[in-house]
RNA sequence: GGAGGGGUGGCAGAGUGGUCGAAUGCGCCGCAUUCGAAAUGCGGUAUGCCGAAAGGCAUCGUGAGUUCGAAUCUCACCCCCUCCGCCA
């Protein structure tokens, strides 16, 4: 959530900021009005309570009927006001929760992905002298992906990863860990179910995201949409010493997403599914260091993708396309030759103090306290597997394994069960 | 799932209707002592909100209730711990 004091003092900046994110700036005025009313009502109730406290103290000495009747009267009035204050407070936080983080001043402004700024394109796109197949037909043919049985068992937007498909996932995870641990990231396997107040604090139950989450009614718990959702709250309510910052974690977890509102988008295959595994980076750092930390996380992402020798580009998201909680966001998109376009495989966000305020995660520097800056970034999800299938496909219908993954997968080429017998017949 | 115990300040832990935002100890900060340190002594040390300040209000797991007045009494809920059962 945003800093209330900051909204009061910089209403114009906040209005401009949220408008860039396609949120009605009038909400800021509505918030401020509710805030003023709340403040006035609280002041009134505080005064009545003060009177009541004075009387109570006098009565502690001895019983006096006239004082008791006066206090009874006060009690009734306070009761009425308390209800009004509660209503105003709810209204006030209601508006506050509809305000996203304000983007950095130099973030490109625009309504959608068309305004995103491509920072660089890296790597050579593969050239094929045969008709290029998409990852799904390759995966199905080699027995690596099964969406038909997944539909039978679980419904749409699920998939089975099989054989080298499954091995590739573990390989990516191992590559991520082996690359990141030397940088001091603490490996962590976090819970995938979290309390509502934690998700709320992380800004992940905001207006536009609530429908995206799975909720376990009986237990009052949400399934995480990313390891971010349970790694951030790890330090909820804590105050970290400045000297021990930044605190960096690399977490592995399954991510659950309802994909509400994406009907008809990427329905084929397993690019967009309800459940996938992901290795995620999370960093808690000093406010003055967060932009630097953000670039650092991005550099690690590039290192990981480059290790796979896949062509990619780095995009700075525009205000209309970036996340609710983000001050600045980069995406790394990998080239998918069959589609002839880049697809998002990584995202890297600096949420500044927007999330830390919600989960009350602070730092202390000499007696001074302040809110930490929280950053999250993808190391590897399942999507790069699909990119590998497309980019490393061969004329013979096999898929070569990227050099960096060969030691984890245990082979240099994925031949597939069917393909193997075909080859046998040919020879 | 069954039985029991418990949630109080950074930590430990007292407090069963009023002068309790809360004893005491530890920790932490400052000062004294010291060449310096340890030890010791003295003082200070929760958070949020409103306020320019003085100050005020709120907070003893959460919410509701009783009362002029609740950490303390009543009810509901949440969480933690121990034992039994089940289980990878």
Description:
The N and C termini lie far apart (66 Å). With 427 residues, this protein is of the alpha+beta class. The chain has 14 helices and 18 strands. Strands 1-11-12-13-16-10-9-4 form an eight-stranded mixed sheet. It has helices at residues 4-9, 11-20, 26-61, 65-96, 135-141, 148-153, 164-180, 196-201, 228-231, 290-307, 354-359, 383-391, 403-409, 417-426, and strands spanning 117-122, 145-146, 160-161, 186-188, 193-194, 214-216, 221-223, 239-241, 247-256, 275-285, 312-316, 328-336, 341-350, 362-365, 368-371, 373-380, 399-400, 413-414. The protein binds one RNA strand of 88 nucleotides through residues 39, 42-43, 45-47, 49-50, 52-53, 55-61, 63-64, 67-72, 74-75, 220, 239, 367.
CATH superfamily of the largest domain: Bira Bifunctional Protein, Domain 2
Average pLDDT over all residues: 91
What is the number of helices?
14
Low-confidence stretches: none
CATH architecture of the largest domain: 2-Layer Sandwich
Rg is: 27 Å
Beta-strand proportion: 15-25%
CATH topology of the largest domain: BirA Bifunctional Protein, domain 2
For the largest beta-sheet, the strand count, sense and barrel status come to: 8 strands, mixed
Quickly list its features.
Helix Hairpins, BirA Bifunctional Protein, domain 2, eight-stranded mixed beta sheet, three-stranded antiparallel beta sheet, 41% helix, RNA-binding
Question: TL;DR?
Answer:
By secondary structure, the chain is of the alpha+beta class. The protein has helices spanning 4-9, 11-20, 26-61, 65-96, 135-141, 148-153, 164-180, 196-201, 228-231, 290-307, 354-359, 383-391, 403-409, 417-426, and strands at 117-122, 145-146, 160-161, 186-188, 193-194, 214-216, 221-223, 239-241, 247-256, 275-285, 312-316, 328-336, 341-350, 362-365, 368-371, 373-380, 399-400, 413-414.
